[in-house]
Amino acid sequence: MLGLRLRPEAESIPRLAALLEDRDSLCAAMAADALAALSGEALPALIEVLQSGSFPAQVEAARALAEIGDPRAIPALFAAGEQDSSLLDYWVSIGFEKMGVGTMFFEP
After folding, report:
1. How confident is the model at residue 4 (pLDDT cuts 50, 70, 90)?
2. Could you tell me what percentage of the chain is helix, strand and coil, using 3-state DSSP and rounding each to the nearest 5?
3. CA 69 – CA 71 distance, rounded (Å)
4. What is the per-residue pLDDT across 34-55, written as a single tens digit (0 to 9) for each?
5. Measuring CA to CA, which residue among 48, 1, 52, 65 is closest to residue 28?
6. Domain count of the fold of the chain
7. Distance CA 47, CA 28 (A)
């Protein structure tokens, strides 16, 4: 796993995305790091996990997307920020900050 984290390959994206669901949080975090290192290539897989994964996997996907900082992830990150989770809110705000996107929350 450490090798994939340090030298990830695009063909490993599906397996790494599946590892975001691992019960071992260190394994999931290393998979997220490897996906973040793949940057735009991993974006679709990370967005998929953010939208439909378990809560721990969503947090790791949000963290990886925040690290990547690709504006194509804005809609998915914004939707994740609407969940009632301070962890997701944190990573969404970090991602938006990295992308230079401001956020404003208000009661309609």
Report:
1. low
2. 75, 0, 25
3. 6
4. 999 998 899 999 999 999 999 9
5. 1
6. 1
7. 16
- CATH code, domain carrying 95: 1.25.10.10
- DSSP code at position 58: H
Contacts 24+ apart (CB under 8 A), 15-19: 16/42, 16/45, 17/42, 17/45, 17/46, 17/48, 17/49
**Direct distance between the N- and C-terminal alpha carbons of the chain, in angstroms, rounded to an integer:** 46
pLDDT value for 7? 75
What whole-number distance in Å separates Cα of residue 67 and Cα of residue 95? 7
Residue 105, in any domain of the structure? no
Range of the domain at 77: 2-99
